Amino acid sequence: MEDADQGTQQHPDSVPEVGEDAVTSVGPAPPPPALTEEERQELQEELVKVEDEIQTLSQVLAAKERQLADLKRKLGITTLNELKQNITKTWQEVTTSNAYRRTSETLSQASLKATAAFSNVGSVLSRKLEDVRNAQTFKSFEGKVETLKTKMTPSVSTTDPGDPSDQESSSPTSETFLPQPGGLPTSETLMQ
Prior knowledge:
mainly alpha, elongated
């Protein structure tokens, strides 16, 4: 049983792997190994050396970035031009991708099917409306409306249509029905 407990415990001398979860790497810091004064001095010197190298590399990187910016300025390459080029390049990559092509083809097919369906619905509606118009009930209703229209329409005068005096007397005008400025219709307007 003691052997099983030892197998499940982590060995104190094990080194965590690179990329190990933060949960397992967070914890109390292990006590520093016992170092001799000479080893400690060597590590301090190496630490200073690495820090100096990092600072030098940062300075070199900054100098290279300034040189890059200067070259771009001399060539007339602006941030806006770079952005346009990046967008164009990205758009080309997107439009040439398999997913885009498949999606485009699917949408095209769906569009064709929708167009056909709408066309079919339109023709069905046209046929149905034509059927309704040809139905006996509709024809009967249409005849009644036609009869009512003829009764409501004033009869056409048999006088000469070119004679303006006949037109004034035979057809009422809007002026005939409008009240006079005094507010009440005159006897003339009532007689016409």
